[in-house]
Amino acid sequence: MTPRPLRQFYDHDRRFVLDGLDRPEAAFRRHRARFLGALASLTDAEWAATTRCDAWSAKDVVLHLVSADGYWALTLPGRSQAEKTTYLRGFDPTSTPDAVIASKREQTTTEALAALAQSTDQLAAAFAQIGDDEWSLLSESPFGHVPVRVIAAHALWDSWLHERDVLVPLGRSVPVEIDELLNATAFTLFLGGAQGGVLDDAGAVGDGPDATVVATVAFDDLPVGALHIRVDRDVTVRVDRDVTVGVTAAARADGAVRPGSAVDFVEAVAGRAPTGPVLARLPADLSAQLARASQVL
To answer: What is the rounded average pLDDT of the residues 59-65?
Structure first.
């Protein structure tokens, strides 16, 4: 499949829901502390090595995360404002991130690492300031205007993937924490819902579903519940923590499809592994939805 533009939702009346995740601050800080520690131990050759992000080095990945953190920290406070920002209208995930970091490439690895430590604190503080009743408020992301819950999940998903992008090719082990993986999996399903296309979309930039997509998915390495997705003109992803699912208890998730590993699922949809083996284990309509979404990554 050929790449296609990102679907962006500005000035819309759609309902986007990502429900059932914990507040992100603790998981984000733990993940970043681990990643910062690993980065600090890299040799010069490892800093310069190509990651899983095509032509990006480890330093390029860090510079990207610093810029992303800064953007989220800048725009999240606008969640309560009637007029939302539109800085990212026309955002191209294949070229915009590289253009943003171009002017920072002269930084040393020490400077880049210090900047990531600082931006980590800034974004964690921005998350901490979100009230429990504010998670459904809209703010701007590359997808357009979406709930801040989606933005928090997006930020952690992106950083979680990039940790693996840097360390896996170097043969470094990357711990998998359940709450981080649950966040990445839930956001991957939301990405599939929004970027795979919605019904009644006059401004669609690619093919979408012909009918409502509904599925319940459970993963062998996520022993915390099943995930439900519904895509019509809206997108809803919910984590059902009342269902216990694991390698030995997957049968408890009534009606759930079980594609295997959540890590494999997230990495496949994000373009870090072939999609075929993973998507083949899903219902045809959800598989097609996720395949369309993966074209933007």
So the answer is: 98
